[in-house]
Specification:
The chain is of the alpha/beta class and about 290 residues long. It folds into two domains: about 80 residues, CRISPR-associated endonuclease Cas1, N-terminal domain (Ribosomal Protein L15, Chain: K, domain 2), CATH 3.100.10; about 180 residues, Four Helix Bundle (Hemerythrin (Met), subunit A) (Up-down Bundle), CATH 1.20.120.920. The chain contains ten helices and eight strands. Helix 5 crosses helix 9 and helix 7 crosses helix 8.
C-alpha cells in the first residue's frame, strides 16, 4: 500500500501529533517534486515498489541495510525536524543519527532538572531500579540495590541455562583478554550491544541528553546505558541464551550473528524501541503530576 502525499511542504506538524518512527531498508530514498519517495527492492517488511513517504507526520526515519539516500532527503527532513538514523538490521546497531529538531525541549529540560538536584537524582535512580526489578525494594542504598541485582542476574543465568539446555556453572570473563571469554559471556555482550543500540535510538527519538546519565556517569552515552540496563533481565539475558541455543544447533553461523538476529526478531515482536521511548518518559515524569 503506497503512502499518500500530504501536500504543502510548509506544513509543520507538532511531534506530539506525529506517528513516530518509520523503518526503511533495501531501497532508494529520494525527493521527487517535493515529495519524499522510497523505491523498495522488497524486504520482509515492505513489498517491492514505489512509496510516497508522509514525512510531515514522522519524527524519525530508521534506515536499515541496503538503503541509499540522496542529499535532498537531508534538506527536506531537516526543514521539518525529521531525524534520519542509520541502523543495523532490526535496530540492533545505531551507526549515526543527525540531530533531531523537536518542537519542544520538555524531556531534555526535565532531565537536566532531575540530574542537577541530588535529591531528585537519587529518586530517579530508585525509579530506574524499581522499573528494572518490577517492584519497589525496601532500601534506598544504591550499592545494596546493585548487590540485589547481581544476585538476581546470576539466578536468571542459571534458570535460563536450564530452560535452553546450556551447560553452565558461572559466567567467566576477562576484561583484559576478551578473546578468552566463554560463550555465555560473549552472547551476553552481543545482546547488550544490540539492546544498547535500541536505547540509543530511543534517546535520539526523545531528544534527551545522552551524556546525562543517572546511574552511569562517565560515559558519553550514559543515559542510553541507564535505559538499556532497565531491560537487562527482561530482554538482554533471554536474547543471549536464545542465541546460544541457536548456536548449539547451527554452530557454523556463529554466536554473534545468532544473537543479533534473535535481538532483531525480539525488537520487532515486542515493539521494543517504542517500549524504551515510553520508559524514558516514565523515568523523566514529574511524580507530583503523576499522582
Amino acid at each position: 500500500m503506497a503512502f499518500v502525499r500530504l501536500g504543502l511542504e510548509s506544513a509543520n506538524v507538532p511531534h506530539a501529533d506525529r506517528y513516530g518512527l518509520l523503518w526503511l531498508e533495501r531501497g532508494n530514498l529520494f525527493v521527487e517534486k517535493g515529495t519524499l519517495r522510497f523505491l523498495s527492492a522488497g524486504s520482509a517488511n515492505l513489498e517491492a515498489g514505489a512509496y510516497d513517504i508522509p514525512y510531515q507526520t514522522l519524527s524519525m526515519l530508521l534506515l536499515g541495510p541496503g538503503t541509499t539516500v540522496s542529499h535532498d532527503v537531508f534538506r527536506l527532513a531537516g526543514s521539518h525536524g525529521v531525524g534520519l538514523v542509520a541502523v543495523g538490521e532490526g535496530g540492533v546497531r545505531m551507526y549515526t543519527a543527525p540531530p533531531l529538531s523537536p518542537d519542544r525541549s520538555t524531556f531534555a529540560r526535565r532531565q537536566v532538572t532531575l540530574w542537577s538536584s541530588p535529591k531528585e537524582r537519587l529518586r530517579t535512580v530508585l525509579k530506574m531500579y524499581e522499573l528494572r526489578f518490577g517492584e519497589k525494594l525496601p532500601t534506598t542504598n544504591v550499592e545494596e540495590l546493585r548487590g540485589i541485582e547481581g544476585v538476581r542476574v546470576r539466578s536468571s543465568y542459571k534458570l535460563l541455562a536450564q530452560r535452553y539446555g546450556i551447560p553452565w556453572q558461572q559466567r567467566k570473563f576477562d576484561r583484559a583478554h576478551p578473546e578468552k571469554n566463554d560463550d555465555i559471556n560473549n552472547a551476553v555482550n552481543h545482546a547488550a550491544t544490540a539492546v544498547y543500540a535500541a536505547a540509543s535510538i530511543a534517546v535520539a527519538a526523545t531528544a534527551t541528553i545522552p551524556q546525562l546519565g543517572f546511574i552511569h556517569e562517565a560515559a558519553y552515552d550514559a543515559f542510553g546505558l541507564d535505559i538499556a540496563d532497565i531491560f537487562r533481565m527482561k530482554i538482554t539475558i533471554p536474547i543471549a541464551f536464545q542465541g546460544l541455543r541457536r548456536n548449539l544447533e547451527e554452530p557454523q553461523t556463529g554466536i554473534e550473528r545468532h544473537v543479533r538476529k534473535m535481538a532483531g526478531s525480539v525488537f520487532a515482536r515486542e515493539h521494543f524501541i517504542h517500549q524504551m521511548i515510553e520508559t524514558i518518559k516514565t523515568v523523566l515524569a514529574d511524580e507530583d503530576e503523576e499522582s
